[in-house]
Every structure is written in C-alpha cells, then in structure tokens.
Amino acid sequence: MVEFEEYSGMQILSQQQPQPTILTPVSDHACFVTIELLSECFENLQIQWECMDACLNLLKLMNSSPSLLLSSGESSFNNDEQDCGVLMSIGFGRQFLESILRNISNTESMNNQTNHHSEHSSPINFIKQYLKSSDFTEYPKDLKGKFGGFPNTGGDIFLHIKSNNMDGAFRCSMQVLNHASIAPHVKRVQDETFGFLHRKNMKKGLGRDLSGFEDGTENPKELEEKIEAALNEHGDSFLLAQKWVHNLKFFNSLPLKERENDIGRTMDESIELEDKSPNSHVARVSLVEEDGHEIEVIRQSMTFGTSSQHGLFFLSFANSTLTFIHQLESMVGVGKFATPEGHNDHIMRFSTNVLGSFYYVPSMKSLTMLIETMSPLVLKRHRTLLSREENIYRLSKL
Ligand code: HEM
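Structure for Dyp-type peroxidase C-terminal domain-containing protein, as requested:
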C-alpha cells in the first residue's frame, strides 16, 4: 500500500509537474503579487490565450534558468553575481478561468465544432468539474466573527515568487509585469508584498511570525504527506492568499501566558499546549474529520512590512478550496468543524485581514494542455477575421 502511494506521488511529480513553490521549503525572501486584468481579458479568447501562453513561458524560463531571464534587457548576466535562487508559481482567479471556459465553448459552437475533450485528453473537463464541485469554490461572502472577517478582495492572476534575496523576487516580479503579452492587459496591480523570513531558525529552516511564535511547525514534512495535502491527481493545487496586518502594541502588552493561550503553543519551543483554549488559533484551524483523519495544508506564509505597518502574508496550498472554507469558518466559530459553535480565533484579536482570494494553480501539464486546447480555436478565429478583412478590402476596391 505504502509503495503504491509513494509510486503515485512520484508519478504526479514527474508526469504532471506541479508548480515549484508548492512543495519546496520556505525561502528567505518572497514576493506576492495580486493582478487585476482589464475587462477585455474576460471577453477575448485571443487575449486570454496570449496571457496564459506568456505565463507558461515565464514559468518555464524562470524555473529552469532564472539568471537568463532576470538578465534580459539589462546588462548581461555576470557569473560573479549572487544566485537569486528564484522559483515562481502562478495562480488564476475563478472569474478568469470561468471566462476562458465560456469563450472556448462559445468559439467552438460558432465554429460548429463538437466538443471532443475526453477526461484524459483535455483539462477542460476537469477544470469544469472543479468549478462545479467543491474543489474550487467561491471565496466566502460576509464571513465575520466577534473580532472581524475575511474581505473578498478578488484578483485574476497571482504570482508567488520565492528567492534567496529581495533582488531576485523584485526582478522576477518586474519581468512578469513588463511582459509584452501581459502588461497591456493589466488593469492594476492590486497588491505587491515583499516578504521575508523573520528570525530564521537555521536548523529548522523556519521563521517566526512578528508575534514571536514559530510559523510552519505543523506543516507536513514528508514528500508524500505534502503531495497528499496540496495536490490532486492532476498535480493541480488551490491557493489561499491573505494579507494580515498586526497590532503588536496590543499583543505584546498581554502577559506571555495569555499570548500562548491565544496561539495554542509555547512561544520558545512551539510546543502544543495540552489544555488549549478552544479560542486558540491552533484549536480553531486543526481540522480533524469524524474518522480521526487530520486534514492538512501546506503553508508558505511570510512576514512583511515596515516598522509602522506590518504583519503576515498568509499563503496556503491545498487540494481543494473547501479545506480553506472549513478553516476560515472555524476561525469565526461557524460551520462543520466548529464544534461546539461560537469560538472565535484569538489571533483575530491582534491581526486584521485586509486582502484575500482563492486561486487555481495548475500543474505545468494542465496549463500546457489548456493552452493547446485554446490554440486551434484562436488560430481559426484569427484566420476567419483575416479572410473577412481581405473580403472587405476586395469589396472596397470594386
Ligand atoms: C495573522 C494571521 C496568522 C498568523 C500570525 C498565524 C500563525 C500561526 C502560528 C504561530 C501557528 C503555530 C505553528 C505552526 O504550526 O505553524 C499556526 C498554525 C496554523 N495555522 Fe496559522 N496563522 C495565521 C492565519 C492563519 C489562517 C488564515 C489559517 C487558515 C485559513 C491558518 C492555518 C493554520 C494551520 C492549519 C496551522 C497548523 C495547526 C496545527 O495543525 O497545529 N493560519 N499559525
């Protein structure tokens, strides 16, 4: 059994190629970019195809030889320069995906083309399934508790960039945002946050949140556990991105015991408290199913900010957004896992959520197949438009 699970996990890695920031350890630096696209991107399959194709090429380049890409347009890359160790993943918002599927089916019906996408030959069917099922749900609306809620601030494309230094994260973000097939379609960069690993423990490779508590202690460690938590059978993943602003003045004014009770772990050693309060963060977000199975996610959060405004950019990957919904609901004391109901996560006493959205993070294989499905439709439409223009030109010459 174990052997089979190992085999299928490895198979997903080699055949589907999940995006690279999901399973790799947290880096010293990161950049989180939330991009909103212009309305034309939702209506025009050609533009969508251009954007997706640019994303695929950037992912391939950035994750294979970032030094080449990071040096393009600047003076040539110098071997003496520090290796930035850049890794990038790209996620797509629900509305953007829905519009791509809609435009594919509209174009197919315009061309009187029948849909031959079989379960195995095209990602269209399983993306449709994600959108219909609980795999890629809408972001929760108006979910609020005693200490605040989770505003749905949207976003069409999300970049998760990891790097050894801020230089790499900065240049990678610039390269994507200046790309000729992406830049003209950007309505606005809603948020661009540079994160860093605060008080890194060199042995564990983990940092501490600004509250002083270690972050990432309970992240799955073994590769198989990580795969099970964050990927589905297609190597696809789903991402929750949330920006939290801390009130440290308030939190640090509390006695240490109270702060530990709020988190549910000790400050120094990050040992889980045996008599945790049901309002502690760990009690609220540890989801255990009726059969005792613990639902896991992979967190890749980072500290961000300046001395006047700072907090945690919370980033988490799971094989379904339903897991995030359960966690968020439980934080405000409602839903299936909030038993008994009414307990509010005390982390929200000192931190305010200011930005949040879900994204689909396709494997490289799913993204490639999606673009391959779009390509002939875009080309056919392009040819029809060209011949229409030629006819108009000919008529005008008569
Ligand atoms: C201000 C925002 C947040 C801060 C400062 C924070 C901090 C922490 C800390 C210190 C821990 C304990 C150590 C560890 O296992 O990593 C933890 C655990 C955890 N957090 Fe958060 N967190 C925040 C938001 C969230 C949100 C929004 C979610 C989910 C939607 C979440 C999910 C989790 C999970 C699943 C664990 C592991 C629980 C366990 O199994 O023991 N956190 N967090």
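The radius of gyration is 23 Å.
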